[in-house]
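Reference record
================
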Amino acid sequence: MKKIALLTAIALLLPVGVDAAKPVILKKHGYVVSEPQVTSQYYVKQIGTDLAWSKTRGASDIVVALIDSSADRNHTDLKNVPRVVNSMKGPYTADIHGTHTAGIMAGKHNRFGIAGLAPNVRYHFYNVFYGVNKDKTDSWTVANAVDTAVEKGANIINLSLGGDDYDSRLAASIKRARAKGVIIVASSGNDRKQTINFPANMKEVIAVGAIDSRHRLASFSNMDDRVKIVAPGVNILSLGVNNRFIYMDGTSMAAPMVTASLALVKSINPYLTPGEIDQLIAKMPRASGKSYTELNTMKLLEATARPIHISAPSVWKSRYVNDVKLSVMNHSNLKSSFTLYQGNKKIKTLTPNRSFTMYSSGDWLPSGQYRIVGQVTDGKHKRYTSRTIDYVNTLKTAVSVKVSEEGTFTIHTTRKGTVTVLDSNGKVLYEALHIAGTFPVRGDTAEKLTVILKPTDLREKVVTTSYEPPIIEDEPPVTETL
């Protein structure tokens, strides 16, 4: 079996305790990162992740599988990363390459060293290499790791490795992973060739080439028209073993940048399929004459369709609401719900794209601040959105009474409350709680009545109305002419 070689070039060690720079504000009114060495991570700004962090730094239910050599789990910038470590080949012993690629994605924002690009997602680190700093593995070991990663719930798999020869077993594992909705990212290779390595050359894989800090293709990067996206891969600062920080070159460094960016995309919309991710990348702006996209995390996030959306005016003045749009992305396996709240109180469930009334539990809702909360799930991931509105109820509290037929009154209330009917002497003839609306009350229609409405909503005033029976004048006596 032809061995698969690590796609890495230069490694330059830096001592622990490099002079700390001033904390850098990456976005006004946004997220502030205070990692001492972030100013040496030129790629953070070049790919727009500094701006993206104000939108998301990753969701904990998104899992990235790094299939590589062993990441140093005891490095301070990885120690508290939510992760699982697995060894598919030999002991899990800290290795430079796996630690460096892991740091690019997962380095914690803990004010110690560097800033990982997606620090808040979950990571599964798989060692597939024979020993410490060894540069070879075999495709069947990688295939086993891919299968295991899928079984353990990976959303994205990063393969910063590759080789010249095609292997059907690894190819089959990758195809199965994609069919199950898993995104596969792989480095294109460092051979200065105009063709890319396997498995990056598979159509099921997002192949990543490398550029430098001046947006030029790296001299070592393999490139052909199957490379759809490029990212920085020259002079990349990340983690080394034993709490060190090192610079490395390679498409191995570019691939985890794409993986981390897609992890942020999936954090916003976990229901995107690999095909939809391909389309998202394809729609990104490209330099004139280029067949590939240069990674820009912020632009990817801005182009990412939210799985659930609420469109509504900030103020409502109508009790009959028909200008609110509740929408969910069109995937057959998604289930959604929309709920109207006042404070923490659930008022009613809403149906997407149908009008509704501000009426609940027998009463028109009072003026105040309300919130619509939408939820969508595929059984594995849940995502929420909400919209706060100010509702102005222009309906006045009122009660009226009239005779509907002999011996029966019709009483109408505009708000829910206790209705009390008094006779002319102030004696209670009738008292009951009623919802807003019209109802009959039996009584002597020839007698004077007072009707009182005490609203359930204590913010509303008690209102009173009276019923005066019609005055029937005596008819004059009839006289006959003799």
